[in-house]
Amino acid sequence: MSFNFNIQKLHAYGSYGDFSVGTGANQIRAQYLLTKIRPGQQGSWENQLATQMAPWREIFSIEELSFDELIQRDLDDSRVAHDLIPYLLGETGQHARFFPPVLAVLVPKREDRSGISPYYPSSKIDGEKVSFGDIFDFSKMKFNETVTPLGEVSYNQQRTAVVIVDGQHRAMAVLALHRQLNKTWGSNPFAPYYDHIRITPEAVAHIELPVCLLWFPDLTEDAELFKAAGINLISVCREIFTVVNRQAKQVSKSRELLLDDEDFAAFMMRRTLTTFKDRAGVDRSARIYSFAFGDSESDAGSQVMAGQLEFCSAVALHKMHAATGFGFPAAFNLTRTVDVTDGRNIRNPTRPIELLNGSGGPVFQSLSRRSAKTHAPQDVEDVTRLIGDITDCIMLPLFDRLRPFMAHTQAMTELLEALNDATAKADPVQNKVRTLLFDGSGNRNVFDEHIDRLKERAKELEDKGQPIPTHLSQQLIYCDAVTRALQSREDEVKARRAFILFNIDQASFLSRDKSVVEPEMRTLRARAKAIFDTSSTQAFQIGYLMAVLTQVEILLPPSATYEVRLKITKFVSELFVKGFGSLFAVTQTTHRTLTGFVTEGRARAFETAEPGFRGLLHSTNVRELNEKQWEFFRYMVFEVVHSKSASAAVLEVLDAPENADVAAIYRDKLAAVLNDVEILRNRYFEAAFRTATNTPEFKRTIDLLKLTATSEGKSEEQIKAIVDLEVVKEKARILEVSKGHLKATLGRIDSRKQVLARLVPSGSHDGGDDESESPLENDLMEQSDAGTEDAIETAIVADELLSDPEPMPETDDINKAESQKGES
């Protein structure tokens, strides 16, 4: 007895055709069936295809996708529900209600139903029929034994996915009508956007949506040439998406980077993001939901994540990888640098050659950043891995171990666990909150827009004196409940991470008298906000990366091999993350009141109006943080790492037996590094002085002194002496204020001699432990020989000063300090 279990396949009909994708040896065939879907209850093949089609987000969850598969923009359900569906239903007053075809690709699901397989099964041809295993068949239809332009696709609904690569909003409008009619939303979290839609079969009987259903018959499991070239269904889908959307609505910068197959830095960024995704469930590790990786209203929104629950962005990671792999040499020089946020300075084709030296990977004469498409896939993979590891071994430990990021990760993990509780999942409001916080950064924007549309619609009805329909009132009530719950959860995270950051027991702190708790809570939140808002900026993160890379370049021997470079990079990364981490160190004591770290000066290091590093930057006429201030944060990292408060952590790394060889080089180079740090320190002090003396208030003071001296009959020489004295007094005042900013954060300012005495083995350098001023600071107090009046009139504003990589030649004080540095 034999059994024949035939696989049940559904059918779609239409006219067929073909075209090609790619050029030369990489050209592949693309075939299509121009067909259609219809919303309805008849069970026709058009209805079945409508049931089968789904947007990308429903076929695969974000957790199941790699970043190479995130090719679609987030769906704007609000736009679909309030613009496109009313258009189809004739509610907008337009008579021609038709959508152009959407583009979808027929792809195989993986065996575990997670993601898509990169290739179809091997094909078999039987006359006019081509079968791709149990996935799908394509047949050309005959009439009187003559092949016609009509074709049939028979697909296995369990093993295939119909992925929309263009027109997902148009498709969603039809699919939503189909689901509303058939009540097949199930537990879909996006269903509430469409709850207000009430339709009958007659209302949608006229609606059809053309579909261009694509497949690529050359991309089968036995296509060895295409496998070797790295061409598969995923890469082709991404290529088509890029091409068809080039003239459409602009894709955000981060989404462009997810699609970019030319830029090596984009490959590295995607690899890092995938690493973060794959760490889900790993304790105390930064997670992908703390990163902004989807569309945003503007690129500026991804430069500073202030006030949000993300602490980094895809755009920032891309810039970091570009700086590491393609920065020009000057970018890694402390005192004569170039701006790595300027794209022109991160396109150095010789930098990758230096990084890959002796790696065993591919060998190039030069390597352009945007040449990935011209190289073999294995070479691209090797370059991405080898150079990407250099950035990752710096930034991953920072995100995992720096206390602000650790506190954020812990707070978010606790919230996710709470929202994954069965009770929370059963609550529609809390379930929606989970979606908005953890299922992609675009969901929140869509939800906010949906609320605005609902309110606009309600206001229109009120203005016309018409009653608000029940479904609209219910939607507004639901959205309001979600908004309040979302705000409550966000406040919960921000408060929780503040308690963790400052090592305060939340329950004990909040159990005290309300009149005491409320003002202390405001202080706690403000201190934490300044730290989290600063640490989440591109300026800080790029500055930290460049601090490590700059120190690495100082330590590297000539023509260092890749393994030597990676070893030194890991050493400096460990030393800096521990040393800089001392800025946020807490004792083992868990506090119950507003005591401990939160009350110390270093807790206010990033507050503009308080003494600290941010206060120093603010005094140089920098009012807002953006990526251009990364140089300041690089300087700040060097100051903190070499401060007395960081000594124990730094010595722990330097004295570790496994680091002996690299630590010896570090100590040998330390004096020169400290020289450069002092030069930078005095540049910021001088910038603060120039900013202060260039204010209208100070100029009025000088004018008043001149006027008074003139009225008293003083000579020109006497007037000049009076003015010069006032300038010297102002310089002395600004110097003390500037030093106060550093002392507020570091506790003290040490000379080179003092730092060397702490970090270099006894006997190598002389030095006490007093608080004597740096020689450069003393020099800064000497009066310049240049005419003070002219200096005031021609003072350089701080932004220009800080972007100038050269020492300030017009200031005799700094020149004298440079000369003394050389002599020492």
Overview of this protein structure:
This protein has 824 residues and is α+β, with helices and mostly antiparallel strands. Among the domains are: 10-249, no CATH class; 413-500, no CATH class; 645-823, no CATH class. The chain has 32 helices and 11 strands. Strands 4-5-6-7-1-2-9-3-8 form a 9-stranded mixed sheet, sandwiched between helices. A two-stranded parallel ribbon has the order 10-11. Strand 6 and strand 7 (146-155) form a beta hairpin. Helix 9 (264-278) packs across helix 10, helix 9 (264-278) packs across helix 12 (377-401) and helix 20 packs across helix 23. The longest helix is centred in the C-terminal third of the chain and has 34 residues, at 660-693. The termini are far apart. Mean pLDDT is 85; it is low at 1-5, 295-307 and 766-824. This is DGQHR domain-containing protein. Residues 760-824 are annotated as: Disordered. Residues 768-792, 801-812 have a biased composition (Acidic residues). Residues 813-824 have a biased composition (Basic and acidic residues).
Features:
two-stranded parallel sheet; 11 strands; DGQHR domain-containing protein; 824 residues; alpha+beta; 9% strand; 9-stranded mixed beta sheet; disordered C terminus; disordered N terminus; single chain
Q: What does this entry show, briefly?
A:
Residues 760-824 are annotated as: Disordered. This protein is α+β, with helices and mostly antiparallel strands and 824 residues long. Among the domains are: 10-249, no CATH class; 413-500, no CATH class; 645-823, no CATH class.
